[in-house]
Amino acid sequence: MMHPLIKAVEQADRNENPPEFRIGDTVSVHVRIIEGNKQRIQPYTGVVIGRRGKGMGETFTVRRIVNNEGVERIFPLHSPKIAKVELVRAGHVRRAKLYYLRDRVGKARRVKDRKRITKGEAVAAE
Question: What is the CATH T-level fold of the domain 21-105, as seen in this structure?
Fold first, then answer.
């Protein structure tokens, strides 16, 4: 049970429409970076290997490879520093956490694509 005052404060800062993505999806997180009095947006593209928390404390972890070295960043879902989260590829996995990808190299690091149902296939199925 959450205190009503905490609930009211969280509702004010909460992102009304959080982005739709799952574990295993390749996403491009557009992060606002403030340097002095200038602001720019830098994309961070990688595979979502985990989500945790709920409400304002919900976070997701994105892993990518830079110079053959794995780099992971944890982003708060409702952070004002996130401009947008763009879905690049939908992945099909059977785990809630993909920490096993840390030990994989090369092609073994890839995640299978999730099959998308198009409008024509949905009508044909009915």
Answer: SH3 type barrels. (2.30.30)
